[in-house]
Amino acid sequence: MSNFDFLKDIDSDIYKIVCDAEKLYRDEYFEQAIIQTRRFAENVCKTLLGDRVIPDSTFDECLSTLQDLYTKNIRQREMINDLYFLKAQGNASAHGKTVKQDGNIALDCLKRAFELGINYAVVSGADKSVEKLEFSEEVLILGNKKKKNSLKEKYLAKKKTAKKNNQLYKKKKEQAKQYIYPSMIDNPKNALKMNFIGAIVLIAALLFYIYITFFAK
64: helix, coil or strand? Predict the structure, then answer.
């Protein structure tokens, strides 16, 4: 699954180019993904020019020609801006001395390529419902989009959690029953100590009783 599936029936070649950019991003080849979005932009530009493309024209030349033609509305100006952005970022990655592998820039390029693709699709005669499509980072990273859980799935998941919690409670309860709390009586030393103290108290009470009975007057 790709964010650019809407391009599949419009231009299969351009679709494959931008799908490769997504795959490169997914595999963390960010710099290569940026360069691939530039390639996507260049092919979109040349396709829009159609017969006006001069053989061996550079991207700059094609973009300059398209800019002279695309000044009628906001959509066309947005396309020109996206084309320039992707060209600039692609050139920077292709001609840079160091490999930056900047995931944020690569993500921005894919999002701009998506907006360019939407406008390109509409200009090419696609249904305007494509304008409601939204770029999904989940599709970009995972290659698919998880379906929302049904009510039945949510109920089963909740029931499973409740069962697990109940089993855990029973286990803790059984562990509590098996645990023997320490007792002084069960300890021989403590038992001897308690007996000694009891004997002293009993003798003291007996002596006090004898004193009160026979000697206290």
Answer: helix
